[in-house]
Specification:
By secondary structure, this protein is of the alpha/beta class. It has a single domain (2-207), classed as 3-Layer(aba) Sandwich (Rossmann fold). 46% of the residues lie in helices and 18% in strands. The protein has eight helices and eight strands, in the order βαβαβαβαβαβαββαα. It has helices spanning 15-27, 44-54, 69-75, 92-100, 112-128, 145-157, 171-178, 189-207; strands spanning 2-6, 33-37, 62-65, 81-85, 103-108, 134-141, 161-162, 167-168. Strands 1, 2, 3, 4, 5, 6, 7 and 8 form an eight-stranded parallel sheet that branches. Helix 1 packs across helix 8 (189-207). The relative contact order is 0.20.
Length: 209
């Protein structure tokens, strides 16, 4: 069983969205997937999974709420992949989850307000576990190629792996999440192309980790 976690120093950077994208992408490739939702205040993934089931989206993607990694270890079996969505802050649970994960994705925006704390967290995780499993993702990006390239350069100079594709900030993605869909399930061709690129890049990192 592989474990892929999405962690962050702050909320609003796309952790839950990307967790759902990866889960759907893996499920569409016949993997038995569970999303472990550790954000007990938001429960975004649990509610999305319920909407997906209610609206008849296929394949089904199960999501359960957990308050501790110990509980997850005791109760989870029979899955090919567990996708962990953590809270919007870095705490002891973040350290614990990162150590237990096969890959740790850190979404970040392109602004220094996002990049500074994300790189600080990446360095902390790298000190406590295998740094090769840390992968940053440029997430909720705008249309400025200059800002994206500057962020890429900063991350690469810091010595961390970076997802090749970026997750853009588009209203259409949120509408699809509200309908229980995610990633390449979107109807808009441009958004689908962007989502497919992110899915492929995450899966490539995960299954070669």
């Amino acid at each position: 069983m592989l474990v892929a976690s999405f962690v962050g120093q702050k909320g609003g950077v796309g952790k839950s969205a990307l967790a759902r994208v990866l889960a759907v992408a893996a499920a569409r490739r016949s993997k038995n997937v569970l999303i472990a939702d550790f954000d007990l205040e938001q429960l975004s993934c649990v509610e999305w999974s319920a909407a997906r089931l209610r609206l008849g989206q296929f394949p089904e993607v199960e999501s359960r709420a957990f308050k501790s990694l110990k509980k997850l270890r005791k109760t989870v079996e029979g899955f090919d992949l567990v996708v962990v969505d953590t809270r919007g802050l870095a705490d002891d649970l973040t350290d614990d989850v990162s150590k237990e994960s096969d890959i740790v994705f850190l979404p970040t925006g392109t602004s220094m307000d996002d990049l500074r704390p994300t790189l600080a967290l990446a360095r902390k995780i790298a000190r406590n576990t295998n740094p090769d499993k840390v992968v940053l993702i440029l997430s909720k990006t705008g249309r400025s190629e200059r800002q994206i390239e500057e962020a890429r350069t900063l991350i690469e100079n810091a010595g961390f792996a970076l997802l090749e594709a970026v997750w853009p900030q588009r209203d259409g993605f949120q509408a699809e999440f509200d309908s229980g869909r995610a990633g390449s399930e979107v109807s808009n061709p441009y958004l689908r192309q962007s989502a497919e690129a992110v899915e492929k890049a995450m899966l490539n990192h995960l299954f070669r980790s």
